[in-house]
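Each field is set out underneath.
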Amino acid sequence: MRKIIAALCVLAIASVPSASATVLLKMNLADLTGEADAIVSGTVTSSYSAWNEDRSLIFTYSTLAVDSTLKGKHKSQVLVRTHGGIVGEIGMRMIGEPELKKSDQVLVFLEPDGDGYNRVVGMSQGRFRVKTDKSGQKRVSNPLSGLSLYDRAKGAIVDPSSEVKQGTRLDELEARIRALLTEEN
């Protein structure tokens, strides 16, 4: 399945005329849930950036203290690697790559990146920020600015939007994910 999705992403990107945004295959909640090896929510406790071995890329390494695990083996913390960051006076940014900053509360869909780290499934599509509103309810948002999404069903680039509405309660999103996991099994 991952190879098919990767191939579709390559085809989608290759068939798009030059654009200033990152183009990704649009993933709905079922896609994110199915592709993820782990789905966790928690708080970013630390974050640092470093060059790769040949100094061609900067990665940011973020440690997430896990509050709850919806899919995968529960761990008290997970390490997530994302493209981009600042090392000294040099910065690198990959449009569409999620930022995980210290103290951020998030729900993330994770998969192994092949180098021993976790990465976020679907780039920013797989990271939901969690904020507590004035009434004490935890609510999620998933801004997808800078992305263009290729919708397989429509065969076209569509405006970036998540099927999860901004401000959805975290417990409602978790219930939807649990229902998808039940259907998966």
